[in-house]
Structures are given as structure tokens and as C-alpha cells.
Amino acid sequence: MIQVLRKNQRFLMLVVAVLTIVAFIFLYNTTQLDELATIENPTIYGKSLTPLAIDRQVKNYQLTLALGQFELLQKLGGTSQDQDRALTEFVWNLLVVQHESRELGIEPTDDQVANRIKQIPIFQAAGQFDPLKYGQFVSQQLAPRGFTERQLEDVIRDSLRLEALSKIIEAPAAIGDGELQAMARAFQPVTAAFVKFERKQDAEKIQITPEEVAAIHQQNQSALVTDETREARCVVFELPADSKLEGKEKVDALQKLANAASEIADSLAQAGSSLEQLASKAGGKIVKLTAFDRTGNPAQASSALDADTMSDIARASFLLPKAGTTSDVIQSGDAFYIIEVTALNEARPLTLDEARPRIEAQLRAQKAEQIFTAGATSAANALRAAVAGGKSFADAAAAQNLKVEEIKNVVAAAESTSPENQAIAGSTLLLNEGAISNLEGAPWGAFVAQLQTRAPVDQMAFGARETQIRESLLRNKRDLLFMEWLRVSREAARITMPAGRQG
Q1: I want to staple 191 with a disulfide (CB 3.0 to 4.6 A). Which of 75, 343, 378, 452 is the partner?
Q2: Which pairs with CB-CB distance under 8 Å and at least 24 residues apart come from 204-208?
Q3: Does 137 lie in the same domain as 255?
Q4: Distance in angstroms (rounded) separating the CA atoms of residues 180 and 186
Q5: Could you tell me if 133 and 67 are in contact, meaning their C-beta atoms sit under 8 angstroms apart?
Q6: What total of structural domains would you count in the chain?
Q7: How many CB atoms lie under 10 A from the CB of residue 400?
Q8: Residue 36 is assigned to a structural domain of this protein
């Protein structure tokens, strides 16, 4: 850390007696780095990025995840479910933020960085900064994986830069009285009539031709593939099944298990180490796991491990690049695991016969939805036309054998309002009295509603939520301003990448 912490690091390492296991799976994932590093001659602001520069930014991303800097990740696009896209977006956006910060003279001081590091939850104990936890993290989690203390500081500097930039960019955001009044409509009790259109189509009765199945298979061969699976074995350290330890005794027992697992993980890094010998010596048991996918399914992957544990193991296993490689220690519940991948079963294209059940099910579901939507839309249009022609909502519905139901004095935004009534009342928010809503989707199918009356705002309910509503509206406006600034700034950065890999 900053000089004050650096000066004490060696001393801290001498007095650390108990090591806490901190598992950050993204610190072990090098495949994203490899993929980004294969990009040839990427440029930003007219300058080429070297492999070393890319490596540095990828490490920043991984460490940002590990440190829980979620504001930085979220605002710079690093939280996408597509990990490759999340990495690429984060790297380019971070480079833009760093450049623009320099242009504006924004540079956090060493004291600011040190103070923020002290506030990171994983470095605290009882709400206070714990130098031992910090020193342990640096030596046990960063150094073995090629990360440095300086990179940790860089992540925090980036977080502080983003905060300072955001304050400038988002300063114009404000909430007007008209916007608040529009939101207040959700707190006006409404009385409305509605009719439901329920899905009754039996998808299994829908006919699918072999030609349709073959065409879908031909068009979607890249997506119609088997699940990639892993086979593995793991060393397990856990408390006895009949253990009744509580409090400090349980913590001490778990710490012993964690230390034993950590010793094996360190030994496995040395050439010639045997998992069986190390496990036997340390008192851990080896569990073999048959093929499982990224979520830990199928359930029969191991009768010895529950679904939650398999999910944790699968997540770590799919970060290991090849058979024979082992994970660091991971914790799931009150047990510690070291995983060795024994086989990688790559995804392969499904044959037509293998894909047929999936394709037929999808086609039936699509056709059933199309039939339902067409029928509900036609009925809703006829209902709306009849009301426009002078009929009452009830009479128009009766003409189509539709049952009319009603909600009375329902406040859409009230916490006590049921989800179904919230949806129905919410569909009338922009309607005048007597008007009919659009066809709205619902768990049972769809519905249309006619607004009967709208009462004055429920001031008690609105007052209790007004501050929250203001903050939410303001946050949305600030986010939009920042997103627009980032879009314009990225255009000015003149980012170039090979076709198909633009950020």
C-alpha cells in the first residue's frame, strides 16, 4: 500500500499466525487475458496498445472484481454476463476515464488512496482497518499470481478518478416538479375493469413437420451444441457430520481445515507432487466427480456433494485451462475444496436426431405463443372498437363471452398491493377515465383494462416514498448523463480493433 503500509509489511508478515482463506475466482482466469492479447495492433487516441499494456489492464479488471469495486465495474460495463464483452468494455472504458482524468487534472493523492484502501471490507475487522488482513491479502493472494501492491493501489486510484469525473459530468442532473407529479400518479387509487385472456393452447397438439425441424437445425448449427462438461476429483476438508461445534470453537476448527487445504494447494504448485499422497498426509478425503456442466448439473454428478457445493465447484473447475491442473482452495459452506480437473469434454454440434426434441419443443412453444397473441390481440381490438362505438365495457366483453373483473381503489405503488393488482393498476397510469389499455402480458396470458376512476394522490403513501422516488429519478438521470458522456468520449478516443472485435 502507500508508504506507511509498505514500511510495515515485512513486520506484519512475521506476526501473521492465522491465515484467512480469500477466494477470488477471477484472479485465476487467464483465458480472457489470452483472448484479448491476441488482438493485433489495437489503438486508442492514435496510439497502439502493447501486449504489456493490455496485460496490465486485464489484471486491473481481475483485481477490480476481487476487491469488490462494483461502482467502477458497473459504470464501465464490466458486469455483463458475457465475460468476454465485460472485459473488453471495461478495458476500453477505463482507458478513456484515465485519459479524460489526466486532461482535467484529476489525480487522487496518496492519502486519499490509503484512506480508501482502509475502507475496503475485506481489509477490516470489527469495522476497523486490519493491517494483518491487508498484509495477508498482498502476500497470499496477489504475489503468487503475479499481482503487485502497486496494482491494488491503481485500482483504487481508478475508482477515485471515476468518482471525481462522475461528480462533474452528473452535476447538471435535477428533478423538476412535473416529473415528481408524474410519478405521484402511481400513488393515486384507481378503480378499473379488466378482462383476462388465458393461455389454453396445448402446445403438444401443435404439429411440427420434419422439414421445419431440419430447417431450424441447418440455420442454427452453431448454437445447437452439447453442453461443455468437466470431470474432476477434489480433496475435501470438512467438519465431522456429527459436529456440534459453535462459536469460537467452530471458527478455530474451520481455520485448521483451511490451513491444511492451503498447505496442499501450495505443495501442488511444486513439480512431482501427488494429490493422493498430499491428501492422505493432510487428512483430506478425495471425491471423484463424473461429468458436470457449468452449473454443476446433472445432479448425479456426485451423490456425495449437494447442489450448492457442485455449483461452486463447477464455477472454479471451468476456470482451469486443461486436465491435470488444480484450483486454489475454495470454500463452500463449512468445507474447503481443492479441485483437479481430470477431463475436459468440449461442446460439439448436435446431430439432427439429437437436436430434434429441443427444436420441436421450441417450435411448439413459439407457435402456441403466436396463436395466443393473435387471438388475444383480435379480441382486444374488437372490445376496444365496441366501446368506441358506444357500448359499455361490460356489454362489449359479454358479446365475446369474456368475463369482466374489477379492482377498486388500488394504489399501484403501494407495497401492500399484490403483484397482479399492481400490473392491472399500472396499465392505467397513462389513461384518461374510460380509456382502455394496450394488451398487457401476464403470467396467465394477457389482459386489457379500462380505467373507471382515478382518486387524488394517497399523500401518506406518497410521502413515505417521496425521498426514495427523488433519489431513484436523480440516479437515473445521472446514469444517462454519464453514459452519454462515455459514448461521446469513446468516439473521440478513436478506438480501432479488427473487425468483429470492437468494444
Answers
A1: 452
A2: 204/364, 206/363, 206/364, 206/367, 206/368, 206/371, 208/360, 208/363, 208/364, 208/367
A3: no
A4: 11
A5: no
A6: 3
A7: 13
A8: yes
Res 285: pLDDT: 87
CA 189 to CA 462: how far, in whole Å? Answer: 11
Length of the chain in residues, anyone?
Answer: 503
Domain of residue 322 covers 229-345
Collapsing DSSP states into helix, strand and coil, what is residue 19? coil
Nine-digit cell string for 199: 393461455
- End-to-end Cα distance, the chain: 32
Mind listing the pLDDT tens digit for each residue in 284-311? Answer: 888 888 889 888 887 555 556 888 888 8
Establish if 221 belongs to a structural domain: no
Residue 196 lies in a domain: yes
What single string gives the DSSP state of each residue in 370-393?
HHHHHHHHHHHHHHHHHHHTT--H
Tens of pLDDT, residue by residue over 358-380, are: 999 999 999 999 999 999 999 99
For 264, 388, 477, the CA distances from 172, given in Å and listed in that order, are: 56, 45, 9
* Torsion-angle region of 390 (φ positive above 0: left; ψ -120 to 50: alpha; else: beta): left
What residues are paired with 410 via a beta bridge? 190
pTM: 0.55
Cβ 331 vs Cβ 257: under 8 Å: no
Give dist(CA 190, CA 409) in Å, integer. Answer: 5
Same domain assignment for residues 301 and 362 = no
372 lies in the same domain as 444 = yes
Look at residue 96 and tell me if it is in a domain. yes
**Between the CA of residue 496 and those of 42, 51, 391, 456, what are the distances in Å?**
6, 15, 62, 56
Q: What letter represents residue 398's amino acid?
A: A
Cα angle 324, 81, 235; round to 5: 30
